[in-house]
Amino acid sequence: MRRALLVTAAVATLSVVLAAGLVWAAFSGVGPAESDGAALATAIDDRTPTLTAAAVVFTNVGNTAAMAVLACVVGIVLAVRGHRADGVWLIATMATASGVFTLVKRVLDRPRPPEAVRLVEVGNESLPSGHATMSAAVVGALLVLAWPHLHGVWRALVPLAGVLWIGGIGATRIYLGVHWFSDVVAGWATGFAWLAVCTGVLLWWRSRQARVAA
């Protein structure tokens, strides 16, 4: 367990550094931000009524509120079934991830793409993408809890489904013209970094409980 804690701490540290770097790059207009204009132009060129309708549904199903509800429902079910610590951890991971991206948004106050290219209404700052952050944190947290119970082909299929969901949600934000490409990349990095931090806390708690029980 100690080795797992050390590895998780190292991963969390590197993830936070990477996320901070990508947020800074997006805000400064370097790195992934250099592809912002091209990514938005490609999204606009690829728009069709069918794709737009699908993107709107998908982005709404995977929005920050939906991810919060999902985490709360699963967390409550876990608690009721006797896995209180896991349920509390899941809800706390979601809530604190929301707080992190909201704080960064307000501090940096990066403008979104021009209103003329947006296909849906949005009302807050652009960096990082809340959809990308929350999908990475919540879906990732669900995978962390589910992993010990997955076997065989499910250990490939479930993570793949999670990656496709997280990637698809981020892609809809660019397609709909409400986020820059670098906002989404920074959001993914922020969500996964915070997930790594929270996973370290979960492992520490389990280790502590195991010592107490012994």
Describe the protein's architecture and organization.
With 214 residues, the chain is an all-alpha fold. The protein has one domain. It has 8 helices and no strands. Helix 3 (49-61) crosses helix 7. The longest helix is centred in the last third of the chain and has 33 residues, at 181-213. The mean pLDDT is 95.
Outline the secondary-structure elements.
Layout: H1 2-28, H2 36-45, H3 49-61, H4 64-80, H5 84-108, H6 130-146, H7 154-175, H8 181-213
Helix pairs in contact: 1-8, 3-7, 4-5, 4-6, 5-6, 5-8, 6-7, 6-8, 7-8
Q: Could you name the key traits of this structure?
A:
214 residues, mainly alpha, 0% strand, globular
> Mind summarizing the main beta sheet?
none
**Head-to-tail CA distance between termini:** 14 Å
Categorize the overall geometry. Answer: globular
What is the total number of structural domains? 1
Work out the helicity level.
over 70%
Q: Give the radius of gyration.
A: 18 Å
- Class by alpha and beta content: mainly alpha
Share of residues in strands: under 5%
Brief synopsis:
With 214 residues, the protein is mostly helical.
